[in-house]
Amino acid sequence: MGVVQRQxxxxxxITYFGVALGAVxxxxxxxxxxxxxxxxxxxxxxxxxLLAPFVLLGVTNLVVRYFxxxxxxxxxxxxxxxxxxxxxxxxxxxxxxxLWVFQIPVQSFLSARDVLVQQYAxxxxxxxFFFVFSTLFIHYIKNFLRIVIPTLLExxxxxxxxxxxxxxxxxxxxxxxxxxxxxxxxxxLTLLGLVAYTYWLGQLHLKPDFRFVSKPLAREMxxxxxxxxxxxxxxxxxxxxxxxxxxxxxxxxxxxxxxVFTIVMYIGSVVDVPRRSIEKIxxxxxxHAIQRNDWxxxxxxxxxxxxxxxxxxxxxxxxxxxxxxxxxxxxxADKQALxxxxxxxILLLGMRYIFDMATGINSxxxxxxxxxxxGFYFTLALAVLNIGFNxxxxxxxxxxxxxxxxxxxxxxxxxxxxxxxxIYHKLHMQPFTVPMLWVLPVAxxxxxxxxxxxxxxxxxxxxxxxxxxxxxxxLFSVFYLRLxxxxxxxxLRLIEKLRSLR
Length: 502
Description:
This protein is an all-alpha fold. It has helices at residues 3-29, 35-56, 59-65, 67-70, 80-101, 103-111, 115-120, 124-142, 148-170, 176-200, 215-249, 254-269, 273-291, 295-322, 324-329, 336-340, 343-358, 362-367, 372-396, 400-427, 436-451, 459-480, 485-500. It contains 23 helices and no strands. α3 runs parallel beside α8 (124-142) and α8 (124-142) runs parallel beside α10.
């Protein structure tokens, strides 16, 4: 896979370092603070994610889709970055004006919520500002196939910052208001780092070339941006609405239950790391291939990403599930039972991520093709259904936070089925290959072998042994059966490097 593999591997290494930091935060630091306060922090961040599409105005897709049109190093890409910065600036201005005009209804709405929500809701705006422009720069930098430093900033820096500030709060060095303000500051540092990195790459071009943006091009970009807003709203609702609805539907218990959901959800979300890494680097490649009408390359990426993501995703879910009880044993003793009772959520979310990974780059294919409008319609429609599923499972069926996980699994699975059908119907492509049929049996055999191992008396030793046994059986089987040329090549190169160290 060339550059995809190299950048994907580097990005995954840094991302998994971030995952390790996140695991330390999740298992040892976050459970130390009251679950209501943890729930508030997650509510603020989730609210930012829900509002971001209305501010970004479709720029995340626009900045990748149209960069090949503007690309010209001699002219500073015709001021492409300036035009992209203009959109979220307008979005933030409109949001600010809207909040000022409707301040009375907003205040009335907040007054009916938890007292912590009322007190700290205003932090959403500065968080939104930093997140929106950080997102723009991350997508802009993708165009130069540079994803490692942005991942270091948005993943590792944020986790180190949040963990350190939370630990200071746990040690009573700072107050809770300073904890929340410190988290805002961490996101601000991330934005500064991304701007500095863009400058270091020599790509911080802010001089606009209005003559280049002809009327037909501006109209085309406007239409794409409009549908980008719809699609981004849908994506955001699919991804983040469950957390906000937990707070809204469970009333006074909402923040506390969201605090619990945040911990177990993070453990399950580890499975999704490879997909996010691969998506960062494949998005501009898919956009360029479609621009050249090179559908053979798109099909090749479709097959390879689906297969490799599925293999790695199953390995990660296998590792989590065989070690889950030991992971809970590492938590503070008084919190273990609270989180252990919700282990089903981890399985439901893990299944959601696995199905998403097994369907490859279907979202990018639709987003950068002439059928981009349909992708946005699908996303928006299913986001609305996700709200309905959350209400049904959380409120009507009283499944509590398990209902939120189930709603996400059903919504994402349905969403991917529709995308698969559409791509096959319109473009005659699908992501599945014969080797994928072997992955689940191999994972099942590895799980059974690790499951029946006797305990060693300490959770750390149990995690090490079960991980080694399950991982070895799984990876040896994948290698022996030659399920993935990319993974086999990676293993062979690793073996050669180990031999060279002798």
